[in-house]
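Input.
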Amino acid sequence: MDVWLQLLQAEPELRPLIDWSRLATRYTDSPKYTARDESGLSIIHTAPLGLFARKKREFELLRQLHQDGLPVPEPLNLNRIPPADVCYSRYRFLTGSTIRNRLPLGRDIEYRLGRETGRVLNRIHRYEVPPTTTWAYRCRVKYNRYVALYQQEAIPLAGDQAILSFIERNIGWIADRPNRWQHDDIHLANLITDGEHLIGMIDFSNHDIGDPWHDFVKMGLFQVEESIPFAVGQVDGYFEGDVPEQFWDVYSVYLAMSCFSSVVWTNRHAPEEADQMRCRLERVISAHQRFERAVPDWYETFDRS
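Output.
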């Protein structure tokens, strides 16, 4: 018996929905469902009631983005179920496939999808955010916490002291970075395509406020592994081909920081993927020649002709 489903189906605004189906989720205990009515297919996200303020912020952000014509899911409903200590949000389902599921698509299409993604990301990053503490301070606090946890791990990364030294020498690059909306989980499973073009960007549940360029970290960790043409296109599209040198300096600091947070997060939340993550991080470190260079080799050597 699906207790979550019973709760949702009892909600007055969700009663017209039929054909409910629970979606597989990997890193959360809060289920997601699809269901339909005469207007089409919807996706329903659930969350603990304590996260309602955050889910409301996500809902309102997506409503603004959708109203402004960005390719994101249309927000439909947001509500609480206090007796069950849960809340839910409902969005229009974007029809298509994730880019990850459609690969390989060929260099030209993958590069074009990357450019389209970069342009959308650039538009999201233009939105002003509520007043908050400086990004550099929050980033440093989070980094220090992850390093402390990393140092408790049994198996260190090869050459980790050199990476730590690189970060300390160059962390000043992030000192004056702005606060903007961050999607904070841009990867190919959160991007929808029809096989030719980008249809939409989904899953803003990890959204945050901070340096917009931090949204490229997942590119270095995942997109490069799955499609170098897409990764190159994401950078080119974001900057319309005119990438400032400062971007690579800032990006390389964030990517170096992610080496430690990735080890900690994977060991705690997906230990079965620990070996895969370590191999991924070795590739990242190698692409930057153990962070002796800011611009990665996969970007410098890509043939756009």
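DSSP finds eleven helices and ten strands in the chain.
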